[in-house]
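Sample 1 of the test manifest.
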Amino acid sequence: MLRRPTIKDVAQRAGCGIATVSRVLNGQGSSSEQTRSKVLAAAEALGFEFNDLGRSLQSNSTRTIGCIVPSLANPVFAEVVQAAQAEANRAGYQLILACSDYDGGLETKAIRTLLAKQVDGLIVTVGDARTSEGLELIRAKRTPCCLVYNTPPDNGPGDGFAAWTVDNRGAADAVAEGFARQGHSCTGFLALEFGRSDRSRERYEGFVAACARLGMAHPVLLEIEEQEGRLLQLLGAMLAEHRGITGIFASNDYLALAAMKAARDLGMQVPADLSIVGFDGISTGLMVEPNLSTVVTDPKAMGRGAAQTVLARLAGLEPPGRPDPAHTFSFRQGGSLGPPSAGKSDGGEAATSPPSNQ
Amino acid sequence: MLRRPTIKDVAQRAGCGIATVSRVLNGQGSSSEQTRSKVLAAAEALGFEFNDLGRSLQSNSTRTIGCIVPSLANPVFAEVVQAAQAEANRAGYQLILACSDYDGGLETKAIRTLLAKQVDGLIVTVGDARTSEGLELIRAKRTPCCLVYNTPPDNGPGDGFAAWTVDNRGAADAVAEGFARQGHSCTGFLALEFGRSDRSRERYEGFVAACARLGMAHPVLLEIEEQEGRLLQLLGAMLAEHRGITGIFASNDYLALAAMKAARDLGMQVPADLSIVGFDGISTGLMVEPNLSTVVTDPKAMGRGAAQTVLARLAGLEPPGRPDPAHTFSFRQGGSLGPPSAGKSDGGEAATSPPSNQ
DNA sequence: AGCCGCTTTGGAAACGTTTCCAATTTTGAT
DNA sequence: ATCAAAATTGGAAACGTTTCCAAAGCGGCT
């Protein structure tokens, strides 16, 4: 009595064929009242539950959607996953999750594994949509897929993929304008794992372009490597090295918050000595003093949208329309962005407009 | 050319039997150099990849572990999942994730679905281990399972399950001592979705017992329902209603942080007018001013431990030893816990001193 | 040449399900 | 009663894989 009962066991106990059991238990085809009750009784008595493997093998569909994100430590992705899952469940699909840990090798491996498991669709955030091997695999297998927080490039593996994403360049532009409005000219861009996230790269490029457009100095790229622990010291060293910087644009809110803490620990005032702007709009940003200025995005909407896109494709329907890029983000002015204090506000190209208010 | 190539196609192209292809591609059994290269060439040419469904059906193992947590919005569970996933991957297993959204019905459904998918093992945090239907299903199917953050009861569905958990009562005791040491006597316990989390209940019960032991007043239970939005107002109303309270123990850090913000918005000083202690030790707690006093737990260790326990059972090995309950948490004294200000510090039964300030 | 033992090979069964189809039973109308 | 139509039923194939087992190939030994 170790083995789980199969449909055969039910058939035997009910004294009928397996086809009949299948029909009764799935409520399809016709069956007499008498057989129906016998089958039901047998299934009940044995505690029978279907085995999805046989089912999926036969039906060529697993009612399963794979989802790959860099990490759940970032609440943005946690929300994406949560929303995608809710949406998938509503449609009777299950989500299989994998995290790539910002590692291209793991990313590829995860995609390969999920494809082997015959997921019906995929929702994916890759490190770099221009070079991802995993996307090649997905394309080769023609599995419906939607990118999240990645911009599909014009060529390369990601070309032609559906995507729900944020207008990183536009958002970076808004941030630059925010800095300019407060009278900043000399800024830095803070990124973690810069090479492993095309989002980060796009934000940086957009910021660089916007700074140029606004006559601000070319932003200093502050790239740090490690995640745990030493972040504070690294940041301290960088701020010490680049004294002229009056504002920092961090590629995500976690970094921005860490930078705020580091600045405080270094005896600097935010925003008087150093303004900080983040990206994502995680809720923690609203809990700190001063509030974090940031680019607010809607990860739930992204996850939901991506899921709907994949599900629509699976159902043969029209995918939902995607939002106007300009509405994929909003700049939230918080207390962490203010005019640079007199002592620090330096020349640069923007010296013409001194801070005026507040 | 729509259909994905199967092992049969490879066999045909290589001019051999499917058994041979299976052996070559899996590197098992013997095969001549000549056949090997022909098979490899054919597989390569066709872009063949194994279909895990057939494989799993045959081998009666999916190399898949199911994981169910209430929500990913809580970073504690995000970390649990992350750690469990890393551990599972190391052992060649894949994690299938489902979130129950703190809903018993969804929880049962998710467990049923994962069992139907023939997961080899399960890592689960249920709402209430004493009554969970899902645990019954798992038990009936004899699927190896480890609880996380649940205490297996002496009877009921969870009885006898392995578990990696925190000593909630012990931790609540430490919190009560923390309050007592600072001179608090009249406290409140703040819980969200109280009935849906046996962790919350244990913390409350432990806190009640400890308060009694320490001669403090019976804590007021502040239970709020909604998650989004109105939390601030609700909290405000409660604090206004229970003026005598000088300290709040929140059942998790999110609530604690929200409470801190609410207190501030109400013009109260933390900790002078109101001390706040949380539970979990999420990193955000260290970023706010003042620091959040909290019970620090190690969700990564829990996730890792639970995964190891399940994996060991699958491999027929001894499960790893579980930590001494006393070491499953540590009380972190932060700035949000201090002595009550003179005006508010009241005596004994709390009714004796009417609210005085603000 | 004959035989033994080793390597290599492929047919076939099995895993649990759905579904086609043909066979059987029931129903209803004459 | 008879017959056609409709309802019910179960055998068998199919999904893609692994593995058992018997057969075939082959080298070297007497």
